[in-house]
Amino acid sequence: ATDSSGINNGVWLMKNTAWSHDFLHRWWHSEILQGPGENHNCSDQSTMQHQLLYENSMTIDDPWDSVEAPIWVPQVRVAAQEHLQSFHAATAATVASREWQEGDFIKN
After folding, report:
1. With contact defined as beta carbons under 8 Å apart, do 33 and 50 qualify?
2. Fewer CB near the last or first residue (10 Å), C or N of the chain?
3. Distance CA 52, CA 70 (A)
4. Which of 44, 39, 40, 38 has its CA nearest to residue 9?
């Protein structure tokens, strides 16, 4: 899901496919965060976003530049935060994001 800070992989679903297995392997073994950024508390989200967007961003010029949002690979669907997760009050206030409401799927 996406929230005010971008992609949030606190809650996500994955279909059991060869592409998914390859993605998990690439994500787990990513080397994009090295040095001081390696232990950043959001490095899992940064590397996930990199793995999902890098290939398209390097191969698509005109379509990529014509929109103001990421072009996800065909295997990926990104949900708005309110459809998949919401935050408890303290986190929602600090990241200017959606607070959990009665009927929401998950409080993250």
Report:
1. no
2. C
3. 10
4. 44
**Amino acid letter at 44?**
D
Q: Is 84 exposed, middle or buried (0-12, 13-18, 19+ CB in 10 A)?
A: buried
The alpha carbon dihedral of 90, 108, 105, 44 has a sign of positive
Provide the token pair at 9. Answer: 């992989």
What DSSP line would sit under 4-39, residue for residue? Answer: TTEE-TTS-----SHHHHHHHHHHHT--S--GGGGG
Give the whole-angstrom CA distance, residue 52 versus residue 55: 7
- If DSSP codes are grouped into helix, strand and coil, which group holds residue 80? strand
pTM: 0.63
Q: How far apart are CA 55 and CA 73, in angstroms?
A: 8
